[in-house]
## 1
Amino acid sequence: MKERTNLRERLLEGWGGWAARNWGKSLLLGSFITLIMTAGVFILSLEMTFFSIMPGSSSQVRDLKKIMADFPLASGITVVVDGREITDASEAEARVKAAVDALEQEFRTEKFAPWVSRVNGRMDREFFRTHGLILSEAKDIRRFTDLYRDLNLTPLLAHLNDDFEREYAGQDDNLADQEVTALSLFRGLEGLINLIAEAAGGSPVENPAIDEVLDTYLMGDPYFLSRDNRMALVIIQPTFTMEDLGPMVKGVTALEETAKQIAREHGITAGLTGLTVVGRDEMVTSEQGLAGSMLIAIILILIIMILAFRMFSVPWISGVPLIIGIYWAVGLTGFTIQRLNIMTAMYMVALVGLGIDYAIHLLTTYVQERDSGANFYQAVEASFRISGPGIITGALTTAAAFFSLMAARTEMMRELGIVAGLGILGEVAAMLIFIPALLGFHHHRRLKKGKEEHRIFQKIKIRTDLASGAGRIIARKPAATALVLLLFCGILTTGAGRVEIEQNLMNMEAEGLESVELQDTLVEEFALAPDGLFILASDLREVKALEKELKDLQSVKRVESAAPFLLLPEEERARREEIFRFRKTVAPLTPASRVDPEDLTEELYRLQMNLLELSDMAYLGGMEKMFLTLNRITGWNEEGDKETQTSLDGLIESLERDPLTADRLALLQGRIFPLLQEKLMRLASAESVVPEKLPSLYGASYISPVTGEFLMSVVPTRNPWEGDFRRVFTTQVESVTSGGTGMILASDQLNTMAKTDGAVTALVALMVIFIILLVDFRNLKLALLTMVPLAASFGALFGFMGYAGIRFDFINIIAIPLLIGIGIDDAVHISHRYRREGPGQMEKTIARTGSAVLLTSLTTIIAFASFIPSVMRAMRSTGVVLSAAIALAFIFSILLHPALLMLSVENKGWNIQAWKRRKK
Amino acid sequence: MKKTLSLFLTGIIFLLAPLSAQSAEDIIRRADKALQGPRLYSVSSLTIHRGDDVQPPQVMEGFGMEIDGKYHSLTVYREPARMRGTAYLMAGDDLWVRFSTTGRVRKLSSSARKNSAGGSDLSYADMGEGNQGIGSKYQAVLRGRTRLEGQECFEVELTPRRGSAAPYEKVVATISVEEYRYLQIEYFEAGARIKTMALGNYRTVDDTAYPFRMEMVSHTRDSRTVIETTTVELDSPRVEPRLFTTAYLESLR
């Protein structure tokens, strides 16, 4: 039974005809709208970092943004200088240090002033030379007093041995916790032993050499070196933060190019890492990915249009409104949200595949009408009358699905809902305005050239064979078709329970990003976790109290703050007391005139035993680098055998055999003594350290110049992005304070959002769509039947993801509302067409709609599949999920839905006509 | 009437609560029996996995017995060659170490008991408790039942007894219902699970089932430690009080 035309159909028919006849006015209308949208385009900004999609209402995200703004340290850039390729360890160390010096010098020049606020490749030794003791705890100052109560060689060694036995003997954890400090001490000690051995052997030793050895012994190496000294770090404080997108990209790129060049000049390599660098990489890779995706999608779609319609003018008739529609979507975004982030920008690519659908439906019907003998204007009017309602219902349901995202709690989802919904409406409006106008223009030009109308369309033949074939099978065996597809759906759905949520934000980044890979290097070579938590404290007392509790947590490696450098009054009092005692002990010391060879030999043997025991502990504790360093000093190998003769052995032998050795060492003692005494007295300054005098790396970076608040950085024991460790770390820190924030907590917010918002918005979308279908069809049974393929698609999609091991994340969760909005379209078209053609006409229904449905699904899949080649894994998985979603929606819409319609209407006798008509 | 009923119900709850607590204590007591022995001798191989790296296995001889109410244990390394002769002696909360390279014996502070034993994921305290059972330092509450490795199990939550030097703020033990065997022990600090011990390969030794495989997984470091026991002797003649002295430690070769 044929439906008579209703008001909507008549209006659409009228508009189509008028626009085709008055194509000039219609084009003018479209151009005017485009001009208005241009204002919106100019307002728009691009924010392509994960940070920009963090939920702004979350207190953790707000605190993190505040920290980023107030504390430049949080946006710090780390240059990793790598000399591991060089075989000779000393050569590697020398080159790495030279590169660090060169980088420091270069980044301090005027050229880098726009990007660099401060650069540090070395510890500020001068600061520690004068404040070393006041910054040490009272118990450590007491320890120093014991250690240096006699600066002659033998008692110095004796006290050092006592200290080793007290601090480290059997204390694996002490050694592990202070591994970097202990390594530094052993290297300093190695230098001192070598110096003494040289002097014992009669070699001349200059004062500058003694000076350097003593500095290294007392304060460690000034460079920030890795455990084996083949790598180093340079810390840069930039003038920009992650929020300053333009300067961030330019600045990081400029710094990176220079760092790599300087490293190359020294025969080594360098790379940059840090949150800001990762943010730059995200922006660059995602923008590249999107631009490429969009281009590929548009080209492929237009090629398919040419192949399907076999007419070169069809691409521009459909392509021009498509691009204009996207332009309108961007303009509308500029007026409403005023920015595009990763999600909404990705959606613009999806819009290519969605928008073209409307053109395909209109043009397919237009061509079919021309094939049936209608003239140009009749065909245009018919295409609007027949396909128009389905297009509008489809657009409304899709837009409704997107607008339902505004029910989400998170800002990102709400923004996506607005942008996506307006985008669909913009596209359908552009299609409805421009397609009849462009058809009319094309028709006018051909008439002017004197070409016959019908000749044009002889070229066009929309192939309906495939669709007819499918229609025949379904028409003959609807029950079997339905059963097979329901079984297919059921089997796939069994995998749905395996679907998980992606917890690790780093798994969503591009693979092989140097900035992300260097984070692992920081963990392995420098024992620095790439990410941790920040805490803001209002005063120093709070900082110290928190630090004490946090350090005890098993998941915390260390806590960085200004606390070690600023003292509370009681701390200052206690330390000053100890410093005065230290000064009183060291100041009056005088060098002895001789060295007792037997006593010294005994202490050297004792030192050897202490170092051996320490190497045992290092071996057991898996501290490989420490084990190797100590083995080098002692000459023992991994199997516990004495392998080489070391400086220490040579020194002992010399003392035992050569009577002159003691005299030479007495002379050396006379030179070391005053130098060491002077250095120790300088270290023992009791002057208070004030925040203004703190070197930037230690103090100013941790104190806000704006609010005076203190920043604490809690460094975890391992990479918090891996496995379940993040939960352990955040739970333990939360047991001390609820004020922690950081990217790991902020990303947890996004994961929560993926779970809860996904469910809520899906529910709202389904309800809204059902209502729209009910209003459109005015038949409850038909509305429900039309929802069935959507339900099947959902089950099958989840199952596919479960079996394929694809996880949901806060980006590909977009698949849910998209599937709801798009997946319903095909079934809507088929429902409309079947009702129009009548029972017993399923073959014809599918023949008429199948090709268009196939084409629209194909173009949508192409648009989404264009994400798959992206280097960003998040985009890649989104491409796979969305392509699979649309493919499944197509299968169930074109095969299952017609079968169920036939079974319901023709077998069961269901009435699917509109209520008003039934009453008549 | 209502008041009487609520008082009655409250009374019942208070009566039942200690019963369930007793029941949990009883479960722990029975499970601890498998780990205890009057004079325990064992030979085990301890392998530490750090990330993808596997350390060379450490082979150790273990001796344990109670003397004057205090549990004493001695662990002597036999492999690798570098560690041969290194030994740890624990007497109650006191701890000594003997270094094989120097032959010297050092007493460690009692706080060192919480430290990692030989770089593994077990602390000295864990090793000590492993030979005594965990019931002595913790009070138990039955949380309910669960299934693990296809077996019906009790889930018992343990918190430190007042005044005890228990090293963890909470322990959750999963014990098989049928045989009262520890299958899993989870250790908590500051609200988070920091380590999990899985016990398996139970074999009968002198009528007692003993776990011949224990694996401790650290949730704060990327590491796990596997202890595989090759020999266990209960009431072994090898175990004598003289072994648990510093003099014996110094005499080791």
## 2
Amino acid sequence: MSEPIVRLQGLKKQYGTVLAVQDLTLEIQEGEIFAFLGPNGSGKTTTFLMMMGLTTPSGGDVHVCGYHPAQNPIEVKRVVSHLPDNLGFYEDLTAAGNLRYTGALAGVEPEIVEHKIEKLLRRVLLYNDRDKPVGQFSRGMKQRLGIADVLIKNPRLVILDEPTLGLDPDGAKELLAMIHELSREQGITVLLSSHQLEHVQQISDRIAIFKKGEMKACGSIHSLAQQMQAGETECCSLSLLQDGGFLDFVRKLEPVAEASAQNGGYRITYARGRWQEIAAAMANGGYLLTRLGTEDGNLREIYRHFFVE
Amino acid sequence: MLKTGHKSKTSSPNASMRGIRVVLRKELADYFNSLRFLLLMGIILATSVLAAYSGIANMRELSAGTDGEYAFLLLFTNAGGSVPSVVSFLSFLGPVVGLVLGFDSINGERARGSLSRVLSQPIYRDTVINAKFLAGVGVISIIMTCLWLGIMGMGILLTGLVPTASELVRMVLFLAVTILHIALWLAVSILFSIVFRQSSTSSLCSIGVWIFMSIFVGVISTGAAGFFHPVTGSSSEAVLYANERLAYLITRISPSVLYGEAVNILLNPMIRTIGPITSLQLDGMVSGFLPLRESLLLIWPHVVGIIAAGTACFAAAYIIFSRQEIRA
């Protein structure tokens, strides 16, 4: 395998007494779409800032595109684009004006920058709004402009901090599809963060799960599901023909750990491999199933497994 | 070497220049498009032109004693009736120009989130602060030069006087010192905009410092001088002298006082000394104009003081900014 585009070794960051990132070791390969998944304050943004050379690590080693960001920030920033979670566009400049400024700062030649701006704005469906001040843009439009913004300097690696933050489900889906296409078309490595697993699930090749500054797990969705199988419970969701007193009934069953009403049906968590006992008890109790769904390998489970403890 | 460790050997030398050019252009464009700039320009121009205009009224009587020599300079230093002179307006309002231009230069960008996006581009971190300071100095120079030309033009039209070469040199130096003085206040406000995260805090602190330096420093200096060298009806000349000297010394921590003294000496060649002098020293003095070289000698410490204070503020801002965490 070729040299990884990002290599973190024992990376640490401490703010006062708070460990924002602890002992993070990770390799990301060129061309991958890699997601950092975790709640707010779990160290995702701090890791990004250390990779951009905007924050100095308290310990450990960072390599991005073959450079040390702390010692060679300019070289790193030449080939890595970063979109902060708050976007930070100049609201009084137009969409094209913002891109022009980024392009000039990044040193894109003036002859080609106009052509690039046009191409990128068309690509993110903002061409008709190019002369509107960004202050009038909706959140979704700003996020799409952010995608154009990071691509203006032909990066090898794009870091997107919470690109789907504050978007409605359709907007998020559209944006992620756009990121996926652009990454595949141009062979750009994408590193994104989110606290919403449905989002990262759609496009990521690999996911790293963060909690309180630590990476809890890392791998493809499939392998994360397998790591989770090691757990002692599984769950299912079900609907019943007639459900009077079902919750009380099912909670008394010995293998059941947890039961709750959900979307007009029920969701129960039980000891692994003991579904048959529950099914038999339900049949005896006169509860007839109209629908049964297992959630094995679903990201919701993964999320519960790693975050809700 | 700073902790963030920029300036590597491998990066191209023009990265820094390119960055400064780009940020400078953007900052200047922002200033010229802003309401803030128009407002400042309007206030400063209106007050100064008014001051100069009312100063013209009694110029004839004032310049009679000197055969009209250096009469043109009276445009700036003469207070007509109830309106203060241009120079006193500028020493009071000049700092406001610097403060208003700079008070949110860094924390405003931080609040909008544009700072981290700009710093994610391949430019050095100090590029941002250097370019912002340069842009501010550029705007100050433009405002002050307009004002200066406006007053001179009005003077020529209304009085029929044409400045002589030596008057012109003195006025050019006056303009330079004015720009330096306002740049110092710009550095102060940029420093505050880096230290404080909220632009409201930084603006209030800048205004606080400005009010202290332009009003309270005088009160404090007389108070302190009276405390250390109490003056009574029967005090000796030495005590009087010490009292005055101390008061002068204290007021000079204020850059506005330094500026006021410096430009008064520049624009009024009759002034040959500053601070208290004894009647013994006056004895046998020949009245006349001070040559430019002598005037410069008198104000040199003032100018150095203004430059030093400005440099110190900017250096502090530079160092703090280079070491600061980007995220709030």
## 3
Amino acid sequence: MASTTATEREGTSRGGGTLYRGDLGMWSWVAHRITGVLTFFFLFAHVIDTALVRVSPQTYDSVIEVYKNPVVNLMELGLVGAVLFHALNGIRIMLVDFWEKGPRFQRAMLWTTLAVWVVVMVPGAYFMLERTLSDLFGGK
Amino acid sequence: MTNALGLAKPRAPRRPAARRSNFELYSWLFMRISGMALVVLVLGHLFIMNILDGGVHRINFGFVAGRWASPFWQMWDLAMLWLAQIHGGNGLRTVINDYARKDATRFWLKILLYVSMVLIISLGTFVIFTFDPNITD
């Protein structure tokens, strides 16, 4: 099962065959980094916008209105998708590290991660965008 | 004996004595332990704030006041703030170590990172503990 074997890879890379050409696991690592950094930067802004409750209710409410803007709402969906991937792939990493069969199933677990992501994101996107879409196109 | 990175070759007859610190081991372990807690804390937070009845459209000052009236949600948010900042900060530290090419760049990027972590953790903690629902009265 598991990943591409060394023999399958042999001869496929140019220049002596020592260059790491990557595999699915590399892309999950890349995606884990990008989603992590993205979330950390958002957190910086998010703690500051929440801190406005110490200024006044009006200040806080007016800044929170930004989150209800359709474009920001869509970006928020992207953030939820990024965090969800990071969480699911993080569980996969822990299973690879601590579960004796983890390394053997790493590839299967990556596909499981992506499947769970889709299954959660479809209804998630519906509930997150419902109000925005009905405001924009509902004709109320 | 040592190469440009200052690492001894694996089979060098004399390798440096025991490493002085296990910091990277503990940081590796911390990422996994805090990660498990954050899965619950953050996904719970996102579900309540973005999806549960009306999502972001029902959030305003009164909503925050209602939640922080309960010590449970105060502690939830406090734990989430600290763990997410340290988990994310440690992740970014790794990213900086990987990609910064000059020692000076690495140094200043990390200083910037640590300052922002201290700032955000302090600000967030201060706000959770000093929140006043009657601020305008």
## 4
Amino acid sequence: MIRIRRAAILLLVAIALSGLFAGKLAPYPYDRQDRQAIDAPPDSKFVMGTDDVGRDRFSRLLWATGVSALLAPAAALCSIAIALMVSSLTALGRPALNYSIDGFTTICLSLPWIFLFIILRSELPLGTGAAAVIATTFGLMGVAGWPVPARVFTASIAEIRQSGWLMQARAAGISAPRIAIRYAWPHLRSLAMAQFYILIPAYVLAEASLGLLGLGVPDPIPSWGNLLVDLQHPDIVRANPWVLAPLGLLIIVMICLEILAPQKEVAL
Amino acid sequence: MTTKLSVFCALTLLLAACRPAAQNIVPKQLRFAIPGDPPTFDPLVVNESNAGAIRDLTSGYLLRIDRVTDEPQPDLAESWQVKDGGRAIAFHLLKDLKFSDGSPLTADQVAQTLRRLATDAATTVGDAFREAHPEVSVSSPLDLEVHFRTSVPRLERLFDQFAIAPAKPAKLPGTAGPFFIAEFQPGAFVLLARNPNYWKRPLPRLDSIRIDIQSSHEIELTRFLRGEFQVIDRLEPDFFERIVRNQPGAARDLGASLDSEFLWFNQSDAKTLPDFKRAWFRSATFRHAISAAIHREDIISVVYKGHAHAAAGPISSANHAWFNTALQPLATDPQAALKSLEAEGFALRDKVLRDGTGHPVEFTLITNAGNTARETMLKLIKADLAKIGIDVKTVALDGRSLGTRIGRTLDYEAALQGFSNTDPDPVNEMNVWLSSKDMHFWRPNQPVPDTGWEKRIDELEDKQATEPSREARRKALDEFQQIVRDQEPVIYLVNPDYLVAISPLVKGMQPGVAPPQLWRSVEQISF
């Protein structure tokens, strides 16, 4: 198991480094167009072929890794942090507060976020720079994605509050912060990690969908999300299976994170 | 055991009954798809393509304009005569005309349709007719006259647009064309059946036409390749290439269409636009330079897979009647573009073009999100202009946001759009070219034209709309096209080809790029 974990760490480090040093590793700039090689198949010049305007898929994948491997986990982390903060308030055991949090979570769950995203994009100044658009998109995903994990955490916290060991800890006079950090958090941690892993691919795909609405990472900057947009054209996938490479990379990252997940060490 | 067998048989029969009828092949039935439900079956209020297809297949007209000869041909009217120098027209109808429901089609019914067009602002094709203040009089069951307050140039052409509709409103109205609407299942299909009272009996050759509602072009293509559909109208280039690979005989490129793709700069007085950018956008030299730096041939090969033609101006080269043949597509020459900009005070330093006051030349170019062709064009244009030091920020917006910015708030810098022309006659684009109109999108609603060339275009547009002589019209339109080319308020890029797929089993179809593209001789279609 240790070997597998080491391999997973190495793989993740390699992927992260390839993204971070895309500028050095990529054979071409991510926006260089070769209009004589539109949708070209893989060859010695373009190892993964080219896209619809003749850009090297391999170079774009490296650059995209730098964008998505950093931003999607960051947005997922943001959602989990907000969800933990909101749901931990229910641990105070105040019914009125619990009802308020429950109601607020329900409202946020029922909001049509996609339309709010569209409205927001239409209100953004057209000249907004690419970095600001990317930050806004992932920031919003991070903020908008908290209600579902919050519901899971709230249910878990309610369960913990009813557990025998908590009663014993209280009876033994252990302070509330110590109970929360030393005893309750390990129970929530595995849950938080599971939610974190669920959100990462969800955000990568959400970014791809938002790209169709003019949000997301703007062209020509590549991301796993906007590279995956090509999957909507089955003929392109059939002609060049390397189009699936971003999806493969996403799956590899998810498996590695799953192997490294701490839940196997937590004794519930 | 017997009970189980009975239940099994019953379920099998039930499943067989529930099997979509779309799977069945009906002899002498043409099948194709439209992307959505037609919002109306009233031919006089049609304003989108789904209802337009139904109208083209079911309607009868007093006369039709032959798109090859550009001359009027008889339809429900056996003959007609233009009188009083274009202030009146008299029609003599064919004998024994009937609508598909059996009700008589006489001069009274035609007069009712024309009176409705004259008074009902909801009708979508009657603007020019209504503005001429027509008065309709019926002298016999086969004869009627329409009088106008002023002379109407090319008067008979007006009547090519008006489908004659029965006076009595109905959910599925009777028709005077080759087919009538026999059944409509919203979200599923429209079934057209042969009109038993069609005046060209024994035509039409087909028994029925089934039009499936199919929003997915991918599914539409799959069903065409399986033989379930026999026709696809207006194919995307990618889909066209797939048909070429799978059924080479079915793919037909009809050549350049009347449509055009273009970009323009916001030259309005909008406060959201900085003065220094307004000065760039109002400079013909700047617009020419942008135009010359864009590789149209790359747009054709990359975006349209070779199925487009470089545009030379506001009228497509496919419009043989009115295109100014002296105009050639603009040559791509980024170096010449840069030189002309430098002559205007711009300077390229460190790969960044700056104007005379030091502002880096950059602008946002907006288009429709989800329009793959335009989004790809944005990528190419951005790269092309980067080569002369111009930074283009490309933004794809949803349709409503785009419409609001272009049509209402004017909060944008440049836009990439296209026109789908429904009529070859340039008179229909007057609302774009007259400087006083709100559709004059680069600088709308001018009380008086601000530039000499816009004033001249206003004069030429008025002239071509009112001039009865075809030669005089052509001269005015030639000059208009030359001015647009010289000033380039709109930078025309390409005229996409009209791409269709027609099964080799279908006979008698005469597709063309002018409306109604596939359905001009629908009564002659057979298998």
